[in-house]
């Protein structure tokens, strides 16, 4: 059995325990060993198995429910309350780690590994359908797709069907499902997957066209510009023919000095985008007819210098999410969260971006403050937390009447918000707060001192990490389930905060959906959603990171043990979704930088501001139609990596979040704090 994408990130479960059993892990008789029951799992996709983890103390005493974290590949398994659900076939490992407080640095963790073997259920049906049109004429080619389905209707990914034609004198099919008609008539095309057949009968008509002309296009374009071409097919009398299959391709003449270039461009139907400059020829073929047109592509030329203005250094804790806003007193402020901060969040005056000044701190009962966001009217802020001593985390509402010194207005720990609250999204009237990664709870905050529960949304069989609300639609990042969109006030689907209504969902290729950002393009008016991964591992890739056995990136370097303080190694990218049809979203482009992984997103004025973890903060031109990989198209405007010699982990960039504000760019780096910068205006116009 092949290993299935072992580097797609991890899901996390913390299992609670009674206080008496918790005490058994500390003192004179600590837990020193874990055992899992069953010790290994053999499952089929869709199966569920309960895994129990037992602890054994130094004296041999058995502890029934020790506090553990159970992790596994997020795209392969789902874990909830000790129940493991198999999602994808392959050989995997679950790891249970004992949660221990107040242990000396460098202490070896107490863990148990559970091998998991997951197989696919049998293929029950093979469905064959056209992938590029269903009309076939003699001399033309169309492509078919074959989909393997299980008995429960789920789809088997990654299959390679065996194709054959029942009438090769009428039509033949290659091993990729491309069907070419040789004469008018009927042919049945069959695809076989795991011994199961699926078939489609095609009728080929005569080819009556006599001329083929390419329409649309341009004489000159830049890399990254999406160019639309059309094909006009006419018969012997000049009549326009419709539905004639047309195949598109392109040729490229490299500019002088370019040796061994990458793939220079791509086409999808009649849509073309170039990655590198040169002279291109687009070719249309319909049976024996061919048409072509040539044009020049130049470099996009959007690079600007980035100028660092200020730095609110924070090397004692790991800085996380932040929000910049204009306070009611007319000055500008930023709120920042922090990991391992004993529940502290921080307040900064950023009115002078070159002189960032900390004005206050807010402490709550927590281990970490994950997320800080401010309502559009700057009336209040949300502060989310994890690791409360009483295990009642919830969301904290801050009164911003005195923005330099916020005070706690209220805390909400009911309605399922007792678990860790990782993110929240405030509007002027409502807060959308994540409840333990299971659902989001909707609170009416007309009175911030008395928040009121009004509704919630829990997507079936899903875990979520983030939610963003725009014009009455809630866009949530739901890990392996990708993007989920819900009507919470738009009204077209009958939704409201009191009655959220599902609109659509779209799984994305990586299965690690962490962040979302809806955006209306200024240049085209098109509705996009930018969907980001978080994949905290590079296992199986050529660059896997600094290596095992050197500790954690989350802890500062310990000179006594030589452990920790290592740089992070991640992967992942931004998927760009065309949301023009809310009920049928489509992935059309991506932004993927090799060897780094994405985190939080902001898009404004047709610029993508991307926190790309160890790849730094990156600004990208997203004007016009989007297609292909923006990274290879010369759309990057500027990049900055925060190397701080006295950071939490010195000289180790780890961009967490970024936000443009009043002509400046603010960003947080988890190893060095809050930064401000600006893009230096170009001395000449962009051509």
Task: Give structural notes.
The chain has 687 residues and is mostly beta strands. Among the domains are: 110 residues, Immunoglobulins (Immunoglobulin-like, Sandwich); 81 residues, Sandwich (Immunoglobulin-like), CATH 2.60.40; 88 residues, Sandwich (Immunoglobulin-like), CATH 2.60.40.1080. It is 1% helix and 49% strand. It is built from 1 helix and 58 strands. A 5-stranded mixed beta sheet has the order 1-7-10-11-3, with no helix packed on it. Strands 12, 14, 15, 17 and 18 form a 5-stranded antiparallel beta sheet that branches. Strands 21, 23, 24, 26 and 27 form a 5-stranded antiparallel beta sheet that branches.
Give me a quick take on this structure:
The chain has 687 residues and is mainly beta. The chain contains one helix and 58 strands.
Class based on secondary structure composition and strand pairing: mainly beta
In the CATH hierarchy, the third-tier topology of the domain at 10-119 is known as: Immunoglobulin-like
Count the DSSP helices.
Answer: 1
Rg over CA atoms:
28 Å
**pLDDT < 50 stretches:** 1-26
For the record, give the distance between the C-alpha atoms at the N and C termini, rounded to a whole number.
53 Å
Determine and state the CATH class of the domain at 10-119: Mainly Beta
Q: What's the CATH H-level homologous superfamily of the domain at 10-119?
A: Immunoglobulins
Overall geometry comes to globular
Q: What is the mean pLDDT?
A: 91
